[in-house]
Amino acid sequence: MLKINKLSVHYGVIQALKQVSLEVNAGEIVALIGANGAGKTTLLHAISGLVKKSEGDIEFLDHSLGKATSRVIVSKGITQVPEGRRIFPDMSVTENLLMGAYLRKDKKGIEEDILKVFERFPRLEERKKQLAGTLSGGEQQMLAMGRALMARPKLLLLDEPSMGLSPLLVKEIFSIITEINRQGTTVLLVEQNARMALQIADRAYVMENGNIVLSGTGKELAASDEIKKAYLGG
Questions:
Q1: Confidence at residue 117, expressed as pLDDT on a 0 to 100 scale
Q2: Under 8 Å CB-to-CB from 214, ≥6 apart: which residues?
Q3: What residue segments make up the domains of the chain, in order of their start?
Q4: Which CATH architecture group holds 2-231?
Q5: For the residues of the chain, what is the DSSP string, one character each?
Q6: Model pTM?
Q7: Which CB contacts under 8 angstroms, 24+ apart, belong to 101-107?
Q8: Does residue 84 contact residue 156 with C-beta atoms inside 8 Å?
Q9: Is the four-CA dihedral 132, 133, 134, 138 of positive or negative sign?
Q10: Pick from 155, 207, 203, 208: nearest CA to 180
């Protein structure tokens, strides 16, 4: 579904990604783990068209994204839930969800999908008229995920969905990610909580200093002594 081939990204003289190659197959949850500054978010931004690549290629459904704008990339079926949620704080929950469907013209379908989001996230329905900035961190994360789903993505990019959440909420968010995947959405997950990420991932990649240094199934990497020592506290 997604093929990244020898992708490099520079910020001025700093090379953030160094010929990164990876694949995400349809129906998978693929995790990308690594320390802060490893290049994980830059990779997601490159896929979403938010940063320009220096070299290499990104293919989605056998078509090169080339110099496609973020708008075109969303229209092709890729949406991103950014690090830090980035909801619209002065808009209501429902208005935020409508923003996720801004490229769509099917009014009835949009209304149906809002109901589906409320079914998946009952707390959002309870607060549908509430300003998004007044929600708790966990509720804001659910809103950011619901907003992304309003675009009916084929591939969902998640950037640190557990950041700043309590352990109980982290468990709930990961359960929701698994359910979203089970219902047909492919997921590329960037996550510092390596233990949880590897538990739900079909496959995973480890990034260090802009390079992919390890890859394997979620179970293989979770069992790796190297990964245990570096990322799993043992």
A1: 93
A2: 205, 206, 221, 224, 226, 227
A3: 2-231
A4: 3-Layer(aba) Sandwich (3.40)
A5: -EEEEEEEEEETTEEEEEEEEEEE-TT-EEEEE--TTSSHHHHHHHHHTSS--SEEEEEETTEE-TT--HHHHHHHTEEEE-TT----TTSBHHHHHHHHTTT---HHHHHHHHHHHHHH-HHHHHTTTSBGGGS-HHHHHHHHHHHHHTT--SEEEEE-TTTT--HHHHHHHHHHHHHHHHTT-EEEEE-S-HHHHHHH-SEEEEEETTEEEEEEEHHHHHH-HHHHHHHS--
A6: 0.91
A7: 101/150, 101/151, 103/71, 103/74, 103/75, 103/151, 104/150, 104/151, 104/152
A8: no
A9: positive
A10: 155
Chain segment 126-168, per-residue pLDDT in tens: 999 999 999 998 899 899 999 999 999 999 999 998 888 888 8
For 211, the token pair is 């390079």
The label of the residue with tokens 């960037």 reads 190
